[in-house]
Amino acid sequence: MSTPHKTPPRTGAMLHLRGNALDKGDAVALPLTQSSMFHLPGQPEDFATYGRVDNPTWQHLEYLLSHLEDAPCLAFPSGMGAISAALFATLKAGNRVLIPSDGYYVTRLLAERFLFNLGVTVEQRPTTAFSEGGFDGFDVVFLETPSNPGLDMIDLSAVAQAVRAAGGITIADNTTLTPLGQRPLDLGVDVVVASDTKAMGGHSDLLMGHVASRNAEIMQAVEDWRRISGCIPGPHEAWLLHRGLETLDVRFDRMCSSAQVLAKRLAAHPAVKQIRYPGLETDPSHTLAKAQCIRFGFLLSITLESEDKAEAFINACPLIRPATSFGGVHTSAERRLRWGDAVDPAFIRLSVGCEPVEELWQAIKHALDTI
Ligand SMILES: *Cc1c(COP(=O)(O)O)cnc(C)c1O
Questions:
Q1: Is 72's C-beta closer than 6 angstroms to any atom of ligand 1?
Q2: Is 195 touching ligand 1 by the criterion CB < 6 Å?
Q3: Mind listing the pLDDT tens digit for each residue in 144-168?
Q4: 220: how many CB neighbours lie within 10 A of its CB?
Q5: Strands 347-351, 332-335: pairing kind
Q6: Mind listing the domains of the chain with CATH numbers?
Q7: Does the model's pTM come out above 0.85?
């Protein structure tokens, strides 16, 4: 029997959400409505009024996102736009927020640079000791699991329950696994935020993000934030993300399956000093990942012998783009120390793409053999 948090969304039904509501002669592909104004004589009623408030292309994108999350969703122009909306909509002066010290670094910057100045107390804990000290007195607990780039995991169900019992709410950044790989809302988390710039869009040609929650009051506040702050997605980006979502299932499946194959082989390669991939039985995240996630993801990390060797490897492999960000169809990699993450200089984050796995492995193996 499948438990709710292990049941992936029906992506077949998602592909036909629009088609099943069409009238004869309508376009099958989603039209791009690039307009700030709408023809509105008399009372506006329920029609789109103005481009900062609503847009038919976003609406349809949100229809797909809501299907994937099984919860109401709001689209944002970037992952940070979504994270800002969730935090600014739920925090006020005098509140306390807890964030991971080893998660996506711009979330920490947002908290330290802006939330702090508005009278919010910001505390940080490492992912591996996230529950130590409990959650009493925290209004918002922000989670990221697996952490980027360390790939350590937090027990979402246990933390969500403890935070709720202590009177706070949880927000989980689900960027790295997507709703196909992990379902925080089904594990009791209050709000999901994500950068759809990564695997959701999948083609490295857009920035987008979304907020999802089954809490109507929070979603109203997030919608107010979007409309009032003007942090709105452009219709063209919304259209591109919608198009990306139509192939998410195929891409994500290929990427996760390839990552599992590569992780096993990389672990056995003499040039690799250390590897992290939640799908490896020896990985510190494996037990939790097995219980909590649907897939182990497409991100892995390897540590080589030296910074020079790591750079040489990234630049020598013709099937690896030396680039920041992840989740695209092209395999990409970078040394995370260059952004100041607390990692070894030879630590490489590898985002496995959609290349055929044997062709990819041959290229990676050749590069590792020759550095
Ligand atoms: C990239 C990323 C973000 C920020 O998303 P943008 O779309 O770049 O604003 C947030 N969280 C995680 C885990 C990310 O990887």
A1: no
A2: yes
A3: 999 989 999 999 999 999 999 999 9
A4: 12
A5: antiparallel
A6: 8-245 (3.40.640.10), 249-370 (3.90.1150.10)
A7: yes
